[in-house]
Amino acid sequence: MSLFSSPDFKDHEQVVFVSDATSGLKAIIAIHSTKRGPSLGGCRFWAYKSESYAIADALRLSRAMTYKSALARLPLGGGKCVVIGNASEIKTPALLRALGRSIDQLGGRYITAEDVGTKPSDIRIIGEETAYVAGLSESSGDPSPITALGVFEGLKAAVRFRLGADYLAGVTVAIQGLGSVGRALANQLQVAGARLIVADINQPAVDAAARDLGAEAVPVDEIYDVNADVFAPCALGAILNEETIPRLKVSVIAGSANNQLALPEDGSRLQRRRILYAPDYAINAGGIINIAFEDRIAGTYDRAGALAAVGRIEMTLEEIFNRAESESRSTNEIADELAEERLVEVEI
Question: 295 pLDDT band (50/70/90 cuts)?
């Protein structure tokens, strides 16, 4: 695949291909933008079908991180690291240290953190070779609870806008994915009185949600067909597409997964169906907001400031929803425009 002609290449500043023969490391680091500050994005391990898929994922995810930081008005740009391979099979301390050395060579243009296939202990090992890591336990720690809080507040804003409901009691939410963020979101929704329908490839996680939260469990593929008010995608991306969108029986989509739309035009498909879509990088920004309130040099973390900033996700979404409705356009189009506007703001 030609990098520059790829449909996912959107004026990326730098794409680095990393390898280490000794440890078996094969990775791609994509830096989309450093206009607002150093690029930040998690390190993802995944057994991609091909190198082309890995490149495409790195390009898409890094651009989403740029927009996520810009919408939240953070002094950060967007980047992403993807490591090719199943984490349970290839991840070793030697590989993580090799990755750390490669990140260090970028001189701070890219800062890495936790993502799919990595955990805080992995970031700590990477940090043995570079200072350009974030989200360690002694600082802001696991971003999942803060990400879930942002999604919860954003979901409430979407329900209020589309359904006119100020409370979630009695609202039915179908959650796809019960990982760290999905389960934390389910916990908050249950406390708020929502009715839960859940699905996950991890059956013990489904059983636990049914037992602890009174959730209704459905097979993984049937989550698209349930009758619900809200669909909350909290697993992997590209699940909103020409095959799944016609099956949905919901009024709102608000979840934590990255890159939920398979294609940009899928946002228009949702608009035509009168399904309100909360753009993923707007609603799931809690994690990067949390990290932005770390002072890596001083070793401090402003939790109060982070929580206040997460609370502003609701206002950003309301602006997106109102502009989309007044202009009869899809919310993802409006979110992209708003992110581009904030990307070039003079004062950061």
Answer: confident
Q: What is the pLDDT of residue 299?
A: 73
Pairwise CA distance, residues 99 & 276, whole Å? 40
Tokens of 203: 């059956």
Looking up residue 252, the CATH number of its domain turns out to be 3.40.50.720
Quote the number of domains for the chain.
2
> Are residues 161 and 104 located together in one domain of the fold?
no
Whether 8 maps to a domain, the answer reads no
Q: 255-293 burial string, b = 16+ CB within 10 Å, else e?
A: bbbbbbbbeeebbebbbeeebbbbbbbbbbbbbbbbbbb
Binned at pLDDT 50, 70 and 90, residue 348 comes out as very low
Reported as a single tens digit per residue, the pLDDT across 50-85 is: 999 999 999 999 999 999 999 999 999 999 999 999
**Residue 72 corresponds to which tokens in the numbers above?**
């939240």
The per-residue pLDDT of the chain, averaged, comes to 94
φ/ψ (deg, to 5) at 93: -55, -40
Closest by CA position to 92, among listed 27, 29, 23, 19: 23
Residues 6+ apart with CB under 8 A from 162: 251, 252, 276
Rounded Cα gap, residues 127 and 108, in angstroms: 13
| Residues labelled catalytic | 80
Beta-bridge partners for 29: 16, 81
The tokens for 323 are 């502009």
The identity of residue 274, as a single letter, is R
* The pair of three-digit structure tokens given for residue 305, joined into one six-digit string: 């400031």
| Residues 149 and 116 placed together within one structural domain of the fold | no
Q: Kindly state whether residues 224 and 104 are assigned to the same domain.
A: no
Residue 96 near residue 122, CB atoms below 8 Å:
yes
Q: Distance of alpha carbon 48 from its chain centroid, rounded?
A: 18
Q: Specify which residues 83 forms β-bridges with.
A: 27, 45
- Please name the amino acid found at residue 9: F
